[in-house]
Automatic annotation (TrEMBL):
InterPro entries: Lipid_II_flippase_MurJ/MviN, MurJ. It comes from Borrelia crocidurae (strain Achema). This is Virulence factor MviN protein. Its main location: membrane. The lineage of its organism: Bacteria, Pseudomonadati, Spirochaetota, Spirochaetia, Spirochaetales. The keyword Lyase does not apply. The keyword Transmembrane helix applies. Belongs to the MurJ/MviN family.
Length: 447
């Protein structure tokens, strides 16, 4: 929703604050009505839904559907919170939206700690609801402080709102394509050796960590500015900040992908090995994660390309490319599994699909005046590979370290020290190569 809401909100804000406030109120009202209706339907059919999506039966099914009736309320809270977060980001307020998810985690942890003995599993439900309310309230209060006070508007016959609705529907379809693609991957993994689904699932979880930390952070910060320049028709500055975003991704993700690639085995040994998850399962997960990491930079650039089109209020191109990505990924996965019978095919299919889509994105972008500074990006890429040299030397010096099997404080201590040293090496490389000045320049441009 953020990608559909923010460009339209910024466009309305350029007209006047009143236009922006009216648009904001319409979207909030629409969300409350639609999501409340969906929640009512899902609560009414909660038992049937849980029967279809889970393996719970009998008394466990009753318990799951009962808990589901309460947890579903979080959808409304997080939906409204995402709109408030978009508004705050458009006013260059980033800390509150980025901090609010921490309150959810803290609320769940504290609720379990203090209420588990009395309420059991329901203590987690209490934590989710309270955390969702806190997320909602803190962002709503900050929106009120900048002058956006909500009042219901039931007239939805407005051109800007209808355009928002159209773009939002495109994004829902894109999300649907992504879900289908992932489910196909899991279905294909289920045809392989026992444990392949768990291996793939765990690899995806750890692959998404750098995506969430680096790509999402960069996109969150530069997307409001991209939307602003697009609404002003300032294509030169829009292209400039788009290229800066790509360069930031290269500077950050090339060395981070390398570090996760070479240290994947001890990291996953620490976090995964134990219980029913054997050393062999961990080794398989390491291989899958490493193939995912090869495409990390490309998947992030693919996402930034989509943000560019969202900023210029064009949601059709990202929709078509998400469909194209899904088709390529599924075709490669199906034939790869058929001929090679290994779960490693699935991350390779994803990485190859992202690369193909980026190449096509680039040529399509020329029609939309996207000026991708390839020469500068190549220089940035070379500098990023230079940072890998000392990181690799440090890894080469320590690669024969003996690790305990599974979690141990010795493993945790060693990985912590290694992580700190790698960060210091990386910062020194950034400083010597002048990368720090690039980040300062980008920060000044955003603010």
């Amino acid at each position: 929703m953020t990608s559909a809401f923010m460009p339209e909100f910024t466009h309305e804000k350029q007209k006047s604050d009143r236009h922006a406030i009216v648009f904001f109120r319409r979207v909030i009202t629409f969300n409350i009505i639609i999501i409340s209706f969906i929640i009512c339907v899902m609560v009414f059919f909660s038992k049937q839904i849980m029967y279809l999506v889970s393996s719970y039966r009998d008394s466990n099914l009753d318990l799951a559907s009962y808990i589901f009736n309460y947890l579903i309320l979080y959808i409304l809270l997080i939906s409204l919170s995402s709109i408030f977060a978009s508004v705050l980001n458009s006013y260059k307020v980033f800390f509150i939206p980025s901090f609010s998810p921490v309150m959810l985690s803290c609320s769940i942890i504290l609720s379990i700690c203090f209420f588990y003995s009395q309420y059991g599993i329901y203590s987690a439900v209490i934590g989710v609801i309270v955390g969702g309310i806190l997320q909602f309230l803190i962002q709503m209060i900050n929106c009120i402080c900048i002058g956006l006070i909500y009042r219901p508007i039931l007239n939805f016959n407005d051109s800007s709102f209808l355009m928002f609705l159209k773009r939002w529907s495109h994004m829902i379809l894109s999300a649907l394509f992504a879900i289908i693609t992932q489910q196909v991957s899991f279905a294909l993994a289920s045809t392989l050796d026992i444990g392949s689904v768990s291996v793939l699932s765990n690899a995806i979880v750890y692959y998404q960590l750098p995506v969430g930390i680096f790509y999402v952070s960069i996109a969150t910060v530069i997307f409001p500015k991209m939307s602003e320049y697009a609404s002003l028709g300032d294509k030169e500055r829009l292209n400039a900040i788009f290229n800066q975003g790509i360069n930031m991704l290269i500077f950050l993700l090339v060395p981070m992908s390398f570090l996760m690639y070479v240290w994947a085995a001890p990291i996953l040994n620490l976090l995964l090995t134990g219980g029913k998850f054997s050393v062999y399962d961990t080794q398989r997960t390491v291989g899958v994660l490493q193939y995912f990491l090869l495409g990390l930079l490309f998947s992030s650039i693919f996402g930034l390309f989509q943000k560019y089109y969202f900023a210029i209020r064009n949601s059709k191109i990202p929709l078509y490319f998400n469909l194209l990505f899904s088709i390529i990924d599924i075709i490669i996965s199906v034939f790869g599994i058929k001929y090679y019978q290994t779960v490693n095919v699935l991350p390779i299919a994803q990485s190859v699909s992202f690369i193909i889509c980026i190449i096509i994105f680039y040529f399509i972008g020329l029609r939309y005046d996207i000026n991708l500074e390839l020469n500068r990006s190549i220089v940035v890429l070379i500098k990023s590979f230079i940072t890998i040299i000392p990181l690799y030397l440090f890894y080469f010096f320590l690669k024969n370290l003996k690790w305990d099997i599974g979690f141990s404080f010795n493993n945790f201590y060693l990985l912590s020290v290694i992580g700190i040293v790698n960060i210091i090496i990386l910062i020194l490389c950034y400083y010597l190569l002048g990368v720090i000045r690039v980040f300062k320049f980008i920060s000044r441009d955003i603010t």
